[in-house]
Prior knowledge:
It is built from 10 helices and 15 strands. The radius of gyration is 23 Å and the shape is globular. About 35% of the residues lie in helices and about 30% in strands. Helix 3 packs across helix 4 (about 115-120) and helix 8 packs across helix 10. The protein has helices spanning about 45-50, 75-80, 95-105, 115-120, 135-145, 165-185, 195-200, 220-225, 265-275, 290-304, and strands at about 5-15, 20-30, 35, 60-65, 65-70, 80-85, 155-160, 185-190, 205-210, 210-215, 230-235, 245, 245-255, 255-260, 280-285. It is an alpha/beta fold. The two termini are about 30 Å apart. The strands form 3 sheets. A 6-stranded mixed beta sheet has the order 6-7-8-3-9-10, with helices on both faces. Strands 12-13-14-11-15 form a 5-stranded antiparallel beta sheet, with helices on one face.
Amino acid sequence: MSETLIELSQVTKSFDGRPVLSDFSFQVRRGEIAGLLGPNGSGKTTTIRLINGVIRPDAGSIRVNGYDAAHDGDAIRAASGILTESAAFYVHMTGLQNLQFYAKLYGVTEAGRAGELLAEFGLLDAATRKVGTYSTGMKKRLGLAKALLHRPEILFLDEPTNGLDPEGIRMVLEAIVSLNRRDGTTMILCSHLLAQLERVCHRYLFLDGGRLIEQGTLAELEAKYLTDISLEVETDLPLTGETYRSVPARRLSTNRIEFTLPGKQAVPALLRQLSAEASVYTAAVTGQDLESIYFKIREVAHHE
């Protein structure tokens, strides 16, 4: 198992007497992509600022790669890259000039690093254009390039695909996976687009009201919260009741039936039975995704 790189222990933080985080603890292992999930106001941005040492906790401890975030913020930020929803650029400078400026600021001496990142994120043709002429999506990609200039060990990404078109989304998600696999970059990723997180994250941390209410891998969370699954089948089976061979079923349309099963392991047997009695054209498991888990966790948390 990889070593722990980021550790928060019983962290509490308030602003103007209003609690934002309460007794908050979690760990992120080296080389892990962790998704930080929760509604607006749940404490995600505050958590990132605390880990970076930009603000200090009222109580508890935060350690990042052996550093104390409350006292060693400069060292942590030197090893980290961050992409916020609104990355700041000088709009009267070109994309290349902006990256070259920040490269000097970060102490990057690697020749051609700015051009390499512009090419990686599809901005080479726009390198000599002023950033003020860039679209929202182009600025987002330039922000990610800026965050990677100094080859950080840790990357914090806040809504990294907001404002991007489908091609830009794919480019950013592929870059995230590639960075992690190639360089072992550890990442904490915040997003409301759960289907995208499902494609890149190893583990998920669920926040609500400043508390950590659940965490785990997708497989662990599925096993705990999705005990029943729905299987939508396109078939000409003449279903007349509410069950099929004791399996709960309901007709969705003329040739679509939804079956409720105790788990994925029951799918093959059901499909074999259906195929023996009728034509089966398509079959798809539904409600078995990160979004379904997210709402189940919140429902459970609010009833405790």
